[in-house]
Amino acid sequence: MSDQKKMAIIATKGTLDWAYPPFILASTAAALGYEVQIFWTFYGLQCLKKDLNLQVTSLGNPGMPMPMPMPVMIQALPGMQSMMTMMMKQKMKSKGVASVEDLRELCLEAEVKMVACQMTVDLFDMNPSDFIDGVEFGGAATFFEFAGQADITLYI
């Protein structure tokens, strides 16, 4: 039996802001010597696509800091999500925050196991060829097999 610690993550969100936590936590844990597996399901599968087009929205996220107060009605206008995504990417770049693509690559290099939920892939008629290389496909039992032995399990 291995003494290596294990961390299991379930990632369910597919927006720019929600892509960061699983990749940051997984890459950090891997750097600390953990064996890490991320089970990507539902909208989180967007984070595994070759062609990333992750957006950020303030709708439903009242904690999002804005440069100025903005009523919900204005936030819902066409083009606001694209503008907010651009602003967030610029802010992250100016603060030296790694891109999602860089963090994802770092995870792959650190041998973080990426498992795409097969049920969700089938449910949304996703094409497995749209996903990055190295992704495995499995169901909930695949997650439980690993998580059942994990020292840390996170739901993001």
Number of strands: 5
What is the N-to-C succession of helices and strands?
EHEHHHEHEHE
How would the global form be characterised?
globular
Low-pLDDT residue intervals, each spanning 5 or more residues: none
CATH architecture: 3-Layer(aba) Sandwich
Number of helices: 6
Structure description:
- The chain is of the alpha/beta class and 156 residues long.
- It has one domain: Hypothetical Protein Ychn, Chain: A (3-Layer(aba) Sandwich), CATH 3.40.1260.10.
- The protein contains six helices and five strands; from the N terminus they run E-H-E-H-H-H-E-H-E-H-E.
- The chain has a five-stranded parallel beta sheet with strand order 4-3-2-1-5, with helices on both faces.
- Strand 1, helix 1 and strand 2 form a beta-alpha-beta unit.
- The protein starts with 5 loop residues before the first strand and ends with a strand.
Features:
156 residues, alpha/beta, Hypothetical Protein Ychn, Chain: A, 6 helices, 5 strands
Topology, element by element:
Layout: E1 6-11, H1 16-31, E2 35-40, H2 72-75, H3 80-94, H4 100-109, E3 113-117, H5 118-123, E4 136-138, H6 140-147, E5 152-155
